[in-house]
Amino acid sequence: MISIFNKLPAQTRATCLMIVALFMFTVMGICIRLSAEHLPVIEVVFFRNFLAVLILLPLVASVGFGSLQMHRPKLFFVRAAVNAVGMFCGFTALTLIPLAQMTALSFTTPLFVTIGAVLFLGEIIRARRIAAICVGFLGTLTILQPGVDNVTFGALLALVHALTIAIASLIVKVLTRSDSQHAIVTWMVVMQTPLALFPSLWVWQWPDLFTWGFLWGMALSGTIAHLCFTRAFSLVEITALQPLEFIKLPFSVILAWIIFAEWPGLWTFVGGAIIFASTVYVTRREEA
Asked: pLDDT (tens digit, 9 = 90+) per residue, 103-139?
């Protein structure tokens, strides 16, 4: 099967890998919510990082621990702290709002990245990108429906999560100039583990057998997703795969319907489509 897969055109292989990655990211979200039904959210955040460390160590050992050298340790810590806050907000949001709404709001992350790149990295943005960003936030308002429905706390947490992930992404962009990919990925979970452990001790509960299954499912699906995601982008240009991101929305709708019996409103689909269209445009302009 592997030999047959490797003979396929690069675009076909990248598309298949991307679809698997997006599905596994959705599975990770399901496992997070199921875990949080039995454990405090901060403890789920701890296990997400701790189990990832256990999974990554053999991979790092195979390439040598010298690849973990940090050239900008302070920036590594800032990234881990920001990402830990974002992870807590995102995990909490998953317990408060429908999975599809969380997914749709996550499409705002590239828009925040573009704005941050202008403000902090000195990148130039032109009128068409500004218009696309405005359209993207119009899509966000379409989902939130301010003035029609009360904006929920979970939706606000989802936006905070998207913002913190954008900030972390900008920091990663700076770190890639001096540090290896292995160092960036591994030190993130290594640093986030104690950051999540200390507050979780105040509300600690030992997982039962079923919860351990959800926790390992969360860690494994997240690891598989990242591996497939990285491999896909090594095969083709990022703009060739960007349109596939929207597949996360139907994945989340179907799985949430099957497992949690929840169905999102029409405006989640409409707003998600608007945000995604503007995100694709911004991405393509960034690659132009």
From this structure: 888 877 777 877 787 777 776 767 776 777 777 777 7
Using alpha carbons, list the distances in angstroms from residue 50 to 12, 69, 187, 191, 198: 34, 20, 12, 10, 13
What's the CA dihedral at 15, 243, 258, 42 to 10 degrees? 100
26 close to 255: Cβ distance less than 8 angstroms: yes
Q: What tokens were used for 191? A: 């640093």
Residue-wise pLDDT for 26-85, tens only, equals: 999 999 999 999 999 999 999 999 999 998 888 888 877 777 788 888 999 998 999 999
Dist CA 48 CA 58 (whole Å): 17
Contact 140, 47 (CB under 8 A): no
Give me 230's structure tokens: 């990285």
Cβ atoms of 203 and 40 closer than 8 Å: yes
Structure-token pair, residue 179: 């540090």
Residue with tokens 């997914």: 103
In 3D space, the residue among 182, 176, 187 whose CA is nearest the CA of residue 67 turns out to be 182
Is the pLDDT at 148 greater than 60? The verdict is: no
Core vs surface per residue 121-156: b (16+ CB within 10 A) or e: eeeebeeebeebbebbbebbebbbeeeeeeeeebbb
Which residues have a Cβ under 8 Å from the Cβ of 141 and sit 6 or more positions away? 271
Half-sphere exposure (Cβ direction) of 102: Cα atoms closer than 13 Å:
28
3-class state of residue 146 by DSSP: strand
- In degrees rounded to 5, what are phi and psi of residue 12? -65, -45
Of 174, 153, 152, give the one whose Cα is nearest residue 82: 174
Q: How far apart are alpha carbons 199 and 149 in whole angstroms?
A: 34
Q: Are 166 and 113 in contact (CB under 8 A)?
A: yes
